[in-house]
């Protein structure tokens, strides 16, 4: 290792970070409806029912969990002249466009459980290909501990902005008084993705270069798997992300039910969610500052404890009290963006630790595992929460007893309350802090310099061997 430590790099230009993060806008514009709007749409207006729709979306998430590691490994393994990530992102676009049309703009007489399963599974293949490649690309843009958090926070801001734009669409659609309001809302979200996704991906792959990674050293399969299984930082991130997926999936899948049926907010329900996301965007700079002060893992732990303290306030909101509900949504939104981008930044550091231990660059696999655990948690959340709503007697949009409405709020609040403590406990003493990451950076940069020197020497020997003007080399080549 070089005695000079890791080479200091200039911060990434704002334009690079912007164009990299831009595809996150259409990504989230599709992702939010998948967990918030589409399940109620297919369960209610499309007539498939709560239990069937909850089961289908849960199975689709499990299918996504199966495809995540496969696509992550492929993303790491096959490199083109574009690099290791950008060609996969481009390949995902046609898959996404076709499936968005079929899922967001269904013909009512053609929708069955089989139709929803097929097209939802197809959509998730494209979704996985796009999101894992995009997250892995962001992790490799810079090796710097804090700069990685800056990159991931920019991506998170774009994700939230995509949600904000999508949440504005229902109000616009309602003002147009379409014949089928529910179908028109969902279709407008689909059109947003259809138009913006190709533009955002084109700009990203054109404007943002990939960081060249050295050729990986050969490591026997068993040894590579053993390092993966024995990776304590990896286990901590995945465990925390799994339970966060349960918490986030429960909140996302039940929000409209809580807002419309229990809190009786009416048309304010979408506006309340809009306030929640805008608050999240506004608070990102504060989270970045806290992360620089205490480290990204401690910032993630504090974020989880904030959830634990604030989420039960929902139990105190009087039905129909729009001002009170607005204040609570803004309060809860202060923290909504923190955990996702902090955990992605932590996973980039975990991938570096693995590269130090094995000589492999398995960033795609690591981010596939991160996506897999979160989706697994979300799948558990939507399946169990919808079944629990059936058990407490809740009927979406129907006549509900006070006990059913209280049960709805309880299912919404208490999983998040307890999960906050679990996550804080798991990540508080996370071992990869800034000091450890600087050591890893120095090791990896010294290794890259060594490999580059060997490559230059090998190229020089090959050139000398093949140069016909040198009699000795010509003779050697003839021999």
Any descriptors?
single chain; Growth Hormone, Chain: A
Describe this structure in words.
With 479 residues, this protein is mostly helical. The protein has one domain (15-210, 226-455): Growth Hormone, Chain: A (Up-down Bundle). It contains 18 helices and no strands. The chain has helices at 14-21, 24-35, 38-43, 50-77, 86-104, 113-139, 145-175, 181-207, 221-229, 232-262, 268-294, 296-310, 322-333, 338-358, 363-391, 402-427, 434-466, 471-478. Helix 1 (14-21) packs across helix 7 and helix 11 runs parallel beside helix 13 (322-333). It starts with 13 loop residues before the first helix and ends with a helix. 49% of the residues are buried. Mean pLDDT is 83; it is low at 471-479.
Count every beta strand, where a strand is a DSSP E run of 2 or more residues.
Answer: 0
User: For the residues shown, what is the average pLDDT?
Assistant: 83
Kindly name the structural category: mainly alpha
CATH superfamily: MFS general substrate transporter like domains
CATH architecture: Up-down Bundle
Q: Percent of residues in helical segments? A: over 70%
| Percentage of residues in strands | under 5%
Number of helix segments?
18
Secondary-structure element order, N to C: HHHHHHHHHHHHHHHHHH
Anisotropy-based shape: globular
How many domains make up the coordinates?
1
Radius of gyration over C-alpha positions, nearest whole angstrom: 24 Å
Main beta sheet, described?
Answer: none
CATH class: Mainly Alpha
